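[Protein data]
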Amino acid sequence: MGNKLHTRPVKKVIVVGGGTAGWMAAAALSTKLAPGRVSVTVVESSEIGIVGVGEATIPPILQFNALLGLDEETVIRRTQATYKLGIEFVNWGQIGDSYFHPFGKTGSDIGGVHFHHHWLRTRRGNLEDYSMCTQAAHAVKFARPVDDARNVLSRMSYALHFDASLYAQLLKDVAVEAGATHIDGRITAVQQDSDSGFVQSLSLEDGRQIEGDLFIDCSGFRGLLIEQALKTGYTDWSHWLPMNRAVAVPSASAGPLLPYTRSTASRSGWFWRIPLQHRTGNGHVYCSDFISDDEAQVEVLKQLDGVALAEPRRLKFQTGRRKLCWHKNVVALGLASGFIEPLESTSIHLIQRGIATLMSLFPAAGFNRDETDLYNHLMATEIEAVRDFVILHYKQTQRQDSDFWRYVSAMEVPDTLRARMAVFANSGRLIIEKGELFNETSWVAVMLGQGLYPKTYDPQADLIDADDIKATLDRMKSVIRNGVVTLPGHYEFIKGLKPSA
């Protein structure tokens, strides 16, 4: 029996849990796998709430929506979305400091040398002067990028803020229309093959049995299949990322509709502010070793720009990742696979990467150990690179005003991050591996934004006359400044979108 489970073609995919992860998986698989060959069923219980806190994304979400055939106007309208040009970080390096992590590229490489080396050589104005995304964000303006390198708008890149529950509903509609089956029921037992340990079926509270070949665990932190059934194990990263709590509360919109997320460091963590069309999302991510849950809730309520629209909601989590994201015939996505924390809005992206990687290695002819191992290697590499980037925000701080900041600034970090910081601190160099999510612009924005200034720069930058470089940089600033003036306001852009047919 066990051998048959390994080698038979996968015809029935069972997604356990709805929410963003479950319906992203169902929508992608039901639209991109032949309906006559593979069926997709989502089993979720309306009695079990979803986390649904994440509302900020990063640019690859646009590719996912396009894969599903969703036009942007529909997504904006259905999810009450706004545009996101990047993240503003306040009080992270030192209290009173702020910097912007833009999505679009900062500056242009000159003479084969990365832009930031020329800026380090000349210190011509502020680094953010050379980012179209940053300047548009500060001006509360927005426009989509254009595919013309001569146009300054080609330097733009963006993502979305949206209501996660509304986004999940939109994806549910897509999946069901494409043939996915939706079952509302509480899972009471998991049946496994006695030889292989593969999951065979699920028992529901009403007595139904749901059989499948491939099971996708989107059951959240509890990991109903990947952990409770398969005992896969978890790698704890809380010594590097000590955040383990969040309290979230929506508030009425106040002030202009900003085209960016704001992250403000607190004495024991940080606050998020995410503007949507119909409300503002707010939250406090913190470590319970340094502040009580009640104190954290009081602090976030003090930060609100408008009146609270609901009672604050408390969440607990442990940063880290599942030791295997694909174990036997179960693939874990979303919170079931691990959690870094929402600082750089990567949670939905990691779901997206998990789905894309699964589709590229889909076990159509049965389960192959080498393919499973490859999936786990690729996903581990992906999440560990994101982990390092997030840790950088805590490690690279000058704040010493609380026990929390003294702890994170002194902590040991992964060797991969330690080496990257050391190389940059010495020469300003960054070696970005192919396929890394965060590019040079992102790393430079955070490193320089939080005070990690290198001793020197790439000596190849000196091959170009200093006056010529200064003149080139001045032209870049001028083009960006003039370009921003012509852009529509963010709110006006959204209101000008034509409804889909």
Remarks:
- DSSP finds 16 helices and 21 strands in the chain.
- The chain has a mean pLDDT of 94.
